[in-house]
Amino acid sequence: MSINFEIKLKRENKIYYEGELLTGCVQFQCPIETKHDGIVLTLEGMVNLHLSNSKSVGLMEAAFYNSLKPITILNSTYELSAPGKLFAGVSEFHFEFPLACKKEPRILYETYHGIFIYINYQLRCDVKRSFLAKSLHKIQQFCIQYKRSPSEAVKLTNKEVHFSISPDSLQKNMKERITMPRFLITGKFERTEFCLTQPLRGQLTVQHTEAAIKSIELQLLRIETCGSEEGYAKDATEIETIQIADGNVCPKLDIPLYMILPRLFTCPTLVTKNFKIEFEVNLVIIFKDDYLISENFPIVLHRLHGNPI
What we know:
Elements: E1 4-9, E2 15-17, E3 21-30, E4 34-36, E5 39-49, H1 61-66, E6 71-81, E7 84-86, E8 89-98, E9 112-113, E10 117-127, E11 136-145, E12 161-165, H2 174-179, E13 183-189, E14 193-195, E15 200-209, E16 213-228, E17 231-246, E18 254-259, E19 270-271, E20 275-287, E21 292-302
Parallel strand pairs: 2-11, 14-21
Antiparallel strand pairs: 1-3, 3-8, 4-7, 5-6, 5-10, 9-10, 10-11, 12-13, 13-15, 15-18, 16-17, 16-20, 19-20, 20-21
């Protein structure tokens, strides 16, 4: 007969902070009395680093790949039950884990799901059974977020970033500049250092253009760097793209820029000795003939609680 069980966390949103207790229970439902060889619960926190398939590291390959080994942040095991029996009906085993990293890096990085960097926290419950009965396991993921104390409060740079895009401002050779349609696009971002729970805001104005515009897009990129002093690999990949304008835009019209950052796929900007997670915004203008230009803006993200300073 099958055993149905699940890991239940006390906190419904599954968001926890360093220094808190992770509490909950493992609930079993058995149709009949069932033997087992022990029930073990494991708390795991890992940083997994990967290389893109196109990367080649040459002579320093061995040292480089060594620096990409998974980084263990949390690893605790708790025996919920010694070998015995699960009674028919509902059984619950309660647990409590302190969320603290006692060795290097001595900090719990925030949960992040990237392409080449993946920071993940989970509970794994294993029900050991005899040779003839298959052992069972369940996994329950949860999120870690930063929570700064008042003494660690970050004061954001409240500075507008103005931009002006024209053929002369783009990094093109002289021949490309001559053949490029003449245009001038100006605008601003309210700030490029902000809390990731707040939207990215700004505005854009097409002052004039010789060629009709097909589309204007705002693109959020993750910049993931893996490696160390022995070598590193840096990759930029798209998180999300939103269309700001469709079709030819009226000159002198202020167009608002507004982007909400997705949860899990973003985190506070993070720089460590083995990896870096950074973010950028691309402003992309596509003309009617599919000629494309883009301007890049690095951004710095923080996790703030209460009103951002």
